[in-house]
């Protein structure tokens, strides 16, 4: 709550009416230009409270035309109508005149550059001059630049300079070791001309100046001038948007044009729009930094254009806030730092709008303007201007000037007395002990107030005045001069501050005692009295507590430096102590100037600091509260995202502390539903604080809207100040929100005590609602009970209230149990209350799984319906919340809850609401909700029964078949058969139509309806009618259509209609089939039909007996198809014999298998050579553990089945059955006969038997393993797994021989022989015998192969040695088959041919022919060597030269004419 103090400037008598206002941007210096018709014009400078600076008075015979302050120095530029311009220095009043020959016309431009180093002046003649001003504010020589435009200059702005690095910051960063900063610093230091380091540098300075003919010029300090653009009309205002590089131009006709400025200096028009409102010189135009254009032109509203968002809107006055109808707005001014727009009216009021920016759910920022209570002055306001760092507002009102300064309305509470400032000089005093209301008027502005039981102390910034209660009035008892920034009162003592000490004064100002602080501790700035203790805080963040119970104040502790305990502490903004002086609470401001989210608690006795963080919603180590985690999380969520704005201790209870908190940046979320849907803006939070248990959350409640802020806590009440009252016509009127809010407060918080003439309202604590007037003993007991209940000490809690007998107190304690969720305590309280109904409801609620739901039932029984709603909502029990809303009669909320959260009960809710509406005679809306609940087919006719016309209209409108049918029944009951038939037709109720037609005797029409619709009920009714008329065939027909086959069969049997009887029986149920079959059997006719019916009815044995008796073999075959293992075995055997007799062996086998006579079935297959299919084999396979066959018999049966499959050539099935019988060897033999290599390999792998491994390897060796490496790998693997090392050695030998014979690859052959040798070595150690001789032979063979390989490898280095080795090999008697003789001779022949010794080559060739006469030498000798021999004169046969040649890689290719040797596979006798 704030008010604006107005200070009228102390203008000299000769000044006249003020016409010009100019604020300095930093110090509170106001320049005022005045005009006196008799004496001429003058310029004066005033201070913050309107004090005139006599040395700065300037007079001329003409009026001043322009005033402009230097941006940093106390230097004022003044322009006069004659063209004279001077610089006025504050406070000395020195005058510096600009050269007199510069301007000869009225000065229209005065503008300083942002640094203050340049001054631009311009006049009506179009002369524009730029001046250079030094750092001391003195003109530097003559002008820098001068231009003549021959037209009146109207406006001028400097284009902002691009940002440059701060040299000081760069230097600090360089010293701290930042290499980048050091490089930048050195570069700037070494650059020519100083670069950016030169503070007076104006390189790139640009100026935009406009003239009356609509031209805008661009200038620089070098004298260059360019006409940038031209608009229509006189330019009244210019604005440059830096980040968009856009220049906006406004003319006197309110034509707004926007131009884009290019880097080369050109301008391109972007848009042009005619603004609404009155134009001309009287229009006041203001630009904000965000690109907002504000105009006031004597209308009832001001207009705003947002260039950034391309939006426009208007702001109007509100009569409810004290403005008058038809009040006009003349002028505007915008304060950027406060985001406040001020406007002056013709009735002497200053309207203030506070701009609030918020972000909506889409992330778009929006602006909201909130109109404040006006400040009332006298006269017509013609000019406004914000200024100085103190945000002062200068108002020119009817020729006089007033300075408005904002002041926070002061208030104080102590000992049942409250004082609230309502205007700058008025106090509202409330004495609650006597219910007295007084108003104190002072002669000075009130800046602080302190109240005692009988005294009121007021401070106006210069002195303290003390008033004392005398009867029903206040009388002045003392005053003294004091400029103390803080004030406190305790009993007869007044505490004021001055540097490094606190003064203890009497009401007359006599200093009784000094409380001294050291230089390190700082100057006292905050004083607070709690009980009989004084808390003092200094500007150095030190705190100290003094005991005031004695004659002199005594310190309880040494000064404590909070800066050592609180990180990032900027300053202490509020310090309070409790009633016992052992705890201090503190609100602080951080270094960055923002209020801290935490409230700090300092324990004076324990010298410890704790805190509660409202941003996270929990203290340093969590809430010290033995409660469930779900509730704790709920409390944290409710308290999170806030910051404290005020704090108070209870006046008498030292454990109780209250804090007023607001949402962080709450002004930015006023319209954001996502932020304010579940959280209130201002929340009042109460804690218990003790040394033993720390911080305990006691209660939270929202601050009522009608109230301004929390003032104090004095159990059993909170004390609030009301929202600001404003004065109009000498009558105090409430704030417009207060009326509605008070009604809301009376409805939601009936324990509040508002009064229209009181500025302070007290509201009972939640635990004391209804107990406000209880005695102190009961109040202390309730506080102790609440405290012990909070910490969970139930013994102490009950001990605290054991002497209380009041039922109201027990009810209050039960309500406290709702807050603490202690149902066990609540039961005790309900018992003491004698509330049996609530106790029973609480016991029944125990079935609910959620604690909140059970507590909600307790809250309902105690009348705490809002708490119950919150509890149901928090635990998600929207079904119970729905019921609660219905019970409360809040049907809209119930419907909304059901539609959004409790859809399972949606129709029930609609139905209940409809019944409620029907009870309240709102039948139209009830009808709609009956339809939503889908009960309208019954409920609406019932509701509208007495109004048959409306009911018929409703039924015809709904076109519902059920309603048509109901209405048809109603009309039929009224004997209106024709209308009834029509509505039955609408409803497609064919039974009712047939029934009415039959009643009317029109059975033919009824038959047509039954036939055309096929309705069973209608057909049945018609059949009954025909039967009653003994029209049997028609009756049977309609009984059949109605699927009443029993009745049709009955009529057929009674009337000997045997032909139709069979078809009807087949359509009917098994009982009717049996009955019909017995009918045929008794008559002895149509026995085949009887057999079929018995079979269809499921009596197979009866059907078979009858079929055998009547020898119906066709029927017997059909019946046999339905026989299964559940059938009678004797019956199965009888049927199988029948099929054998008639040579249907396959069917007989199936029946024998079903009868579990497997040997007989298998024998029949063998005798009749029946193929055993997989299905038959599987059906004869008995599962393990069968009761029919033992395990040995089961395996024998499987083996016989497999033998039979082998004979029939079904090897795969035989393999399967052998395997199931456990005969894996036989299974492998069967699989080998199938030749399925893949399955053989798989079966060998899973069998894991030596014999099977060997069999598989032998089989694979019979395949073309030379071309398939996978087969070779499996052969080796199987021999290895089967431990047949001798066989494996033989396989390796075969591999070696293939390498020699086919590829002459002796290296691979040597490897294979080596592996064979290893295998034989292992086999020798196991078997002995022949393995020894075989190993010796193999070793010799390996030796021969190795010698031949060595000879070939030696040939490159020693050809003669290689030849000798080969010749020695030829002398070996058993060389072949280890090494082929032809390969050795071929090697020699090749050598001799290469040496050109063809005779020796020929001799070797002849020797080879002699040893092997039939040999084909081309196999061993290359084609090239043979051709060499032939060229040498040796004749060879044609086949030797053309048949085969050896490739370079040592492989051979054979022609198609070569006779290949057939390979003969040896067929193993697998049966052995």
Main sheet properties: 5 strands, antiparallel
Number of strands: 67
- Given the helix and strand composition, which structural class is it? alpha+beta
The overall average pLDDT, rounded, is: 79
Rg of Cα set: 58 Å
Distance between the termini: 116 Å
Poorly predicted parts: 187-203, 622-628, 666-677, 726-756, 1437-1472
Overall geometry comes to extended
The portion of residues forming beta strands comes to 25-35%
Total helical elements: 48
Helicity, as a percent range: 25-40%
What does this structure look like?
This protein has 1472 residues and is of the alpha+beta class. It is built from 48 helices and 67 strands. The strands form 17 sheets. Strands 26, 27, 28, 29 and 30 form a five-stranded antiparallel sheet that branches. Strands 46, 47, 48, 49 and 50 form a five-stranded antiparallel sheet that branches. A hairpin with a 3-residue loop joins β47 and β48. α13 runs antiparallel to α14, α14 runs antiparallel to α15 and α24 runs antiparallel to α25. The longest helix has 25 residues. The protein is extended and about 155 Å long. The C terminus is likely disordered.
């Amino acid at each position: 709550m704030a008010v604006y103090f107005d200070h009228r400037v102390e203008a000299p008598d000769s000044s006249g009416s003020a016409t010009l206002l100019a604020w300095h941007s930093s110090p509170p210096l106001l320049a005022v230009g005045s005009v006196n018709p008799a004496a001429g014009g003058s310029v004066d400078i005033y201070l913050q409270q309107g004090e005139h600076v006599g040395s700065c008075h300037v007079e001329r015979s003409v009026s001043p035309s322009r005033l402009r302050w230097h941006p940093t120095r106390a230097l004022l530029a003044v322009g006069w109508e004659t063209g004279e311009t001077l610089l006025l220095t504050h406070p000395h009043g020195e005058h510096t005149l600009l050269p007199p020959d510069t301007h000869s016309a009225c000065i229209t431009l005065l503008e300083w550059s942002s640094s203050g180093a340049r001054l631009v002046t311009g006049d009506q003649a179009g002369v524009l001059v730029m001046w250079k001003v030094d750092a001391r504010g003195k003109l530097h020589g003559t002008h820098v630049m001068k231009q003549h435009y021959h037209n009146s200059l109207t406006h001028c702005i400097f284009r902002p300079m691009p940002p440059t690095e701060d040299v000081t910051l760069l230097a600090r960063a360089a010293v701290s070791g930042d290499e980048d900063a050091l490089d930048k610093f050195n570069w700037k230091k070494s650059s020519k001309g100083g670069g950016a380091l030169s503070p007076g540098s104006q390189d790139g300075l640009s100026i935009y100046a406009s003239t009356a003919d609509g031209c805008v010029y661009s200038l620089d300090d070098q004298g260059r001038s360019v006409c940038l653009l031209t608009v229509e009309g006189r330019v009244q205002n210019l604005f440059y948007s830096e980040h968009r590089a856009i220049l906006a131009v406004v003319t006197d006709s309110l034509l707004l044009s926007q131009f884009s400025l290019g880097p080369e200096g050109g301008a391109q028009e972007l848009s042009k729009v005619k603004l609404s409102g009155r134009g001309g010189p009287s229009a006041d135009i203001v630009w904000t930094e965000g690109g907002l254009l504000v105009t006031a032109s004597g209308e009832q509203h001001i207009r705003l254009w947002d260039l950034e968002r391309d939006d426009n809107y208007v702001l109007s006055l509100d009569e409810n806030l004290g403005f008058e109808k038809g009040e006009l707005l003349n002028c505007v001014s915008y304060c950027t730092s406060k985001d406040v727009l001020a406007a002056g009216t013709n009735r002497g009021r200053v309207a203030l709008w506070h701009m609030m920016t918020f972000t909506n759910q889409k992330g778009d920022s929006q602006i909201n303007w909130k109109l404040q209570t006006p400040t009332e002055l006298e006269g017509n306001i013609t000019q406004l201007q914000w200024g100085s760092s103190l945000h002062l507002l200068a108002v020119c009102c009817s020729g006089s000037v007033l300075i408005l300064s904002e002041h926070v309305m002061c208030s104080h509470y102590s000992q049942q007395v409250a004082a609230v400032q309502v205007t700058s000089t008025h106090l509202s005093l409330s004495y609650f002990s006597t219910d007295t209301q007084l108003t104190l008027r002072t002669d000075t502005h009130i800046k602080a107030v302190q109240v005692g039981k009988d005294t009121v102390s007021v401070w106006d910034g210069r002195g303290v005045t003390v008033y004392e209660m005398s009867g029903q009035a206040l009388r002045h008892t003392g005053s003294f001069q004091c400029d103390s920034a803080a004030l406190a009162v305790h009993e007869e003592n007044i505490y004021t501050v001055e540097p490094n000490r606190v003064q203890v004064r009497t009401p007359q100002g006599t200093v009784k005692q000094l409380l001294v602080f050291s230089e390190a501790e700082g100057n006292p700035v905050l004083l607070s009295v709690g009980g009989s203790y004084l808390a003092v805080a200094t500007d150095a963040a030190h705190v100290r507590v003094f005991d005031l119970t004695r004659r002199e104040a005594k310190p309880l502790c040494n000064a404590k430096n909070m800066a050592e305990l609180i990180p990032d502490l900027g300053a202490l903004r509020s310090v309070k102590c409790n009633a016992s002086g052992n705890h201090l609470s503190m609100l602080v401001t951080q270094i960055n100037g923002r209020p801290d989210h935490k409230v700090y608690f300092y324990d004076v006795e324990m010298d410890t600091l704790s805190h509660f963080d409202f941003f996270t919603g929990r203290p340093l180590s969590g809430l010290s509260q033995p409660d469930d985690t779900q509730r704790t999380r709920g409390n944290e969520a409710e308290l999170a995202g806030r910051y404290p704005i005020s704090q108070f201790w209870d006046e008498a209870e030292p454990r109780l502390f209250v804090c007023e908190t607001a949402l962080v940046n709450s002004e930015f979320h006023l319209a954001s539903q996502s932020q304010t849907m579940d959280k209130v803006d201002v929340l009042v939070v109460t804690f218990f604080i003790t040394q033993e248990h720390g911080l305990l959350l006691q209660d939270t409640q929202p601050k009522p809207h009608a109230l301004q802020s929390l003032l104090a806590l004095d159990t059993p009440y909170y004390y609030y100040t009301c929202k600001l009252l404003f004065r109009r016509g000498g009558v105090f009127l409430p704030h417009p929100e207060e009326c509605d809010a008070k009604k809301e407060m009376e409805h939601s918080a009936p324990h509040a005590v508002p009064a229209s003439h009181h500025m302070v309202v007290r509201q009972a604590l939640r635990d004391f609602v209804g107990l406000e007037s209880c005695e102190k003993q009961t109040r202390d007991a309730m506080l102790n009970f609440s405290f012990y209940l909070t910490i969970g000490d139930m013994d102490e809690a009950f001990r605290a209230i054991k002497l209380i007998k009041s039922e109201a107190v027990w009810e209050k304690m039960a309500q406290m149990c709702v807050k603490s969720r202690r149902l066990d305590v609540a039961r005790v309280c309900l018992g003491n209350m004698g509330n049996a109904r609530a106790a029973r409801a609480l016991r029944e609620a125990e079935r609910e799984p959620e604690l909140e739901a059970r507590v909600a039932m307790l809250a309902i029984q105690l009348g705490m319906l809002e708490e119950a709603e919150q509890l149901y909502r928090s635990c998600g029990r929207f079904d119970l919340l729905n019921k609660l809303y219905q019970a409360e009669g809040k049907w809209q909320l119930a419907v909304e809850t059901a539609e959004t959260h409790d859809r399972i009960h949606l129709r029930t809710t609609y139905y209940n609401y409809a019944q409620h509406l029907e009870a309240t005679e709102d039948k139209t809306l009830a009808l709609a909700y009956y339809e939503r609940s889908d009960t309208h087919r019954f409920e609406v006719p019932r509701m509208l029964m007495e109004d048959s016309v409306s009911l018929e209209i409703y039924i015809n409108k709904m076109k519902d078949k059920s309603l048509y049918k109901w209405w048809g029944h109603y009309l039929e009951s009224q004997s209106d058969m024709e209308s009834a038939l029509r509505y039955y037709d609408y409803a497609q109720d064919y039974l009712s139509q047939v029934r009415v037609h039959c009643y009317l005797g029109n059975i033919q029409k009824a038959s047509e309806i039954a036939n055309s619709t096929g309705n069973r009920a209608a057909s049945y009714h018609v059949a009954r009618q025909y039967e009653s008329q003994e029209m049997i065939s028609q009756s049977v027909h309609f009984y059949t259509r109605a699927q009443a086959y029993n009745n049709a069969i009955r009529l057929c049997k009674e009337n000997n209609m045997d032909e139709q009887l069979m078809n009807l029986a087949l359509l009917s149920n098994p009982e009717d089939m049996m009955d019909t079959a017995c009918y045929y059997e008794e008559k002895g006719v149509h026995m085949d039909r009887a057999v079929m019916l018995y079979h269809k009815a499921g009596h197979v044995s009866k059907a078979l007996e009858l079929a055998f008796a009547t020898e119906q073999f066709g029927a017997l075959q059909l019946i046999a198809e339905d026989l299964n293992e559940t059938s009678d075995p004797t019956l199965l055997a009888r049927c199988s014999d029948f099929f054998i007799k008639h040579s249907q062996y396959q069917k007989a086998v199936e029946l024998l298998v079903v009868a579990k006579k497997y040997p007989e079935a298998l024998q029949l297959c063998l005798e009749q050579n029946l193929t055993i299919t997989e299905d038959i084999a599987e059906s004869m396979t008995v599962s393990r553990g069968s009761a029919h066959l033992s395990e040995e018999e089961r395996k024998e049966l499987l083996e016989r089945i497999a033998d039979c499959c082998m004979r029939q050539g079904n090897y795969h099935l035989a393999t399967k059955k052998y395997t199931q019988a456990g005969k894996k060897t036989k299974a492998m033999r069967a699989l080998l006969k199938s030749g399925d290599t893949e399955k053989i390999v798989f079966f060998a792998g899973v069998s894991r038997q030596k014999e099977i491994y060997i069999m598989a390897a032998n089989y694979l060796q019979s395949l073309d393993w030379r071309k398939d490496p996978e087969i070779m790998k499996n052969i080796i693997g199987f021999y290895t797994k089967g431990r047949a090392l001798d066989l494996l050695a033989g396989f390796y030998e075969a591999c070696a021989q293939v390498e020699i014979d086919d590829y002459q690859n002796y290296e691979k052959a040597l490897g294979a022989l080596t592996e064979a040798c290893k295998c034989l070595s292992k086999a020798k150690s196991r078997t002995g015998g022949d393995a020894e001789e075989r190993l010796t032979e193999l070793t010799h063979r390996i030796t021969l192969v190795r010698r031949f390989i060595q000879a070939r490898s030696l040939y490159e280095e020693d050809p003669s040695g290689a030849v000798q080795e080969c010749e020695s090999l030829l002398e070996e008697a058993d060389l072949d088959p280890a090494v082929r003789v032809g390969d050795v001779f071929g090697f020699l022949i090749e050598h001799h041919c290469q040496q050109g010794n063809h005779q020796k080559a020929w001799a070797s060739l002849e020797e080879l022919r002699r040893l092997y006469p039939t040999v084909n030498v081309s196999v061993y000798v290359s084609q090239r060597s043979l051709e060499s021999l032939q060229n040498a004169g040796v004749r060879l046969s044609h086949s030797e030269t053309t048949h085969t040649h050896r490739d370079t890689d040592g492989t051979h290719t054979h022609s198609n004419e070569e006779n290949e040797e057939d390979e003969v596979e040896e067929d193993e006798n697998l049966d052995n």
